[in-house]
């Protein structure tokens, strides 16, 4: 059930109003007064039931999501910092200083499930609207990157060992006695995989890998035989995943790289230091002049970059209310020259008849386009897009959108703090004269 909004109380000597105790020039203090919190109340109110226990305030939950991405914190850490930091509390709509945890960390998980990626887009919309007309440029830069999932580097031996361990656990929970559990054998066989490329260890490692696969297949088949019908139905999806992993070979398509994140793709972006990345492809769009992110889209199943542009422009239209006229991209998008009325600019050799000015103009455009690369790096290292800890495709989409929203908020904070500094500087300068 939706909770009532905070109502300001009377000032007292015991419980002072937070706004009267804090520095009004603080960045978070100023940002909290600029964000249109009523917009979230209107948009998310329909997601709540009319019965049951009252939920936590919408502003509190949205504020915690913003702070989590802005400060690059986990769910547990942002809740802990909230109790210690009065500016966090004011940002989330508190009127008096609180000494208790506002929510459990798991409540943030439930709220993310409640609003979903579409709700996250509403948070991104608000972060774009903070910049006003600066976000409405006629040209955008677009690029794709990989948002890696929080999984171990996948190998066949690791997956087969996990299948065996999960099969043993399923049998134990169902009260089934297996012929053999192989617990000590599995540990020994996995140790044999260490440094398997060494000539003296290669033969033993290959033999151990075959044995791990044999054991995993044996345990899965035994589960199929011995599990009762109702338990078999309960674990149907898990067993199908186990069998798919055991059946896949080096040349198989749509491989499974993780038992708990089956949607993970293996993507190669041609990086010298990281040949393969395991996660999902995401597309980022930013304005040319002001560098505001106006698009952050999940591209499922590693599509060709040029085929993602149609959905990218749809999202930009949803978030900003208008489409750009020009989109500059790298050669990974070649093959697409226009989508509707939007021109797609891709680096290519100049025409023989092109003037020096036209050549200079194109060089300048694509040099500026390269500026999207450090923006992506900031998203990864400063706003939690490097390794995604949220589950499933919805988690992938939610995380990259929230990272983009936090980037826009940070950009507004920096520009606004510079504006305040210049304002005070010129004020004191005129006073001296």
TrEMBL record:
InterPro entries: Transpos_IS5-like, Transposase_11, Transposase_InsH_N. Residues 269-409 form the Transposase IS4-like domain. Pfam families: DDE_Tnp_1, DUF772. Coiled coil: none annotated. GO terms for molecular function: DNA binding; transposase activity. Residues 18-114 form the Transposase InsH N-terminal domain. One of its GO terms (biological process) is DNA transposition. PANTHER family: BLL1974 PROTEIN, IS1478 TRANSPOSASE. This is Transposase, IS4 family. It comes from hydrothermal vent metagenome.
């Amino acid at each position: 059930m939706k909770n009532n909004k905070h109502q300001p109380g009377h000032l007292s000597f015991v419980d002072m109003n937070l706004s009267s105790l804090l520095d009004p020039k603080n960045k978070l203090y100023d940002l909290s007064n600029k964000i249109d919190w009523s917009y979230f109340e209107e948009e998310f109110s329909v997601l709540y039931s009319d019965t049951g226990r009252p939920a936590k305030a919408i502003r509190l939950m949205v504020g915690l999501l913003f702070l989590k991405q802005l400060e690059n914190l986990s769910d547990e850490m942002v809740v802990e910092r909230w109790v210690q930091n009065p500016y966090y509390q004011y940002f989330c709509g508190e009127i008096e200083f609180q000494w208790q945890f506002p929510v459990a960390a798991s409540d943030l998980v439930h709220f993310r499930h409640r609003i979903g990626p579409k709700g996250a887009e509403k948070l991104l919309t608000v972060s774009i609207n903070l910049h006003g007309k600066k976000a409405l440029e006629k040209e955008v830069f677009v690029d794709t990157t990989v948002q890696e999932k929080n999984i171990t580097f996948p190998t066949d031996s690791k997956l087969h060992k996990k299948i065996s361990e999960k099969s043993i656990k399923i049998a134990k929970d169902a009260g089934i006695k297996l012929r053999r559990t192989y617990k000590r054998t599995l540990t020994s066989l996995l140790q044999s995989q260490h440094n398997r490329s060494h000539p003296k260890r290669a033969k033993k490692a290959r033999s151990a890998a075959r044995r791990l696969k044999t054991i995993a297949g044996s345990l899965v088949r035994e589960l199929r035989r011995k599990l009762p019908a109702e338990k078999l139905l309960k674990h149907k999806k898990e067993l199908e995943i186990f069998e798919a992993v055991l059946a896949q070979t080096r040349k198989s398509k749509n491989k499974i790289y993780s038992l708990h994140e089956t949607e993970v793709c293996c993507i190669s972006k041609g990086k010298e230091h990281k040949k393969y990345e395991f996660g999902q492809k995401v597309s980022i769009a930013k304005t040319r002049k002001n560098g505001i992110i106006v698009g952050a889209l999940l591209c499922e199943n590693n599509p060709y970059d040029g085929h993602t542009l149609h959905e990218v422009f749809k999202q930009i239209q949803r978030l900003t209310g208008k489409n750009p006229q020009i989109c500059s991209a790298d050669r990974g998008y070649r093959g697409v020259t226009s989508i509707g009325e939007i021109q797609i600019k891709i680096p290519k050799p100049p025409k023989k008849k092109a003037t020096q000015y036209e050549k200079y103009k194109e060089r300048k455009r694509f040099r500026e386009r390269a500026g999207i690369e450090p923006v992506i790096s900031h998203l990864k290292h400063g706003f939690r897009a490097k390794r995604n800890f949220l589950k499933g495709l919805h988690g992938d989409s939610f995380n990259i959108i929230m990272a983009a929203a936090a980037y826009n908020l940070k950009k507004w904070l920096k520009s606004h703090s510079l504006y305040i500094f210049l304002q005070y500087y010129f004020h004191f300068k005129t006073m001296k004269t």
